[in-house]
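Quick illustration, no need to memorize.
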Amino acid sequence: IRALGLERHVFIAGWKGSHEVKQAILRSRAMVLASYEEGLPVVFMESLALRRPVISTYVAGIPEIVLHGQTGWLVPAASVEALTVALREMLLASDAALHALGSAGHDLVARQHDSRLEARKLALLFRGDELEQTSAVPTPLAKRLEPAKVRG
């Protein structure tokens, strides 16, 4: 950061409590996490729940919640060029366009990651009951995506 003269533009916050994290997300245009190895980051669900789109990589479970062009941007891991393009698009996007991406993400999180629904499903499994595929227990998003969209 110092070597590139970015001290006025980049701030390393360190550990923050949940209220501070929420406030930082609300002040942002988007959540950005370029990674080689992730599961399904909770911070993505938090960002989308707060209607902030996400920029990340096609790694592990990320494409289940970050849908390119729908809830944010997905780029190949290690592609500085693709990440640069996504960051530029996000910075140039209108507030309305960012809100549309964030709102789509909010709706996806509400449908696919509702803690009450997940607790109910776990309770059924612990009792040994079969889960029925109904509107109350949605099919995982990854199973409904076309393979080309998952692979990138």
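The beta strands are 31-33, 54-57, 72-75.
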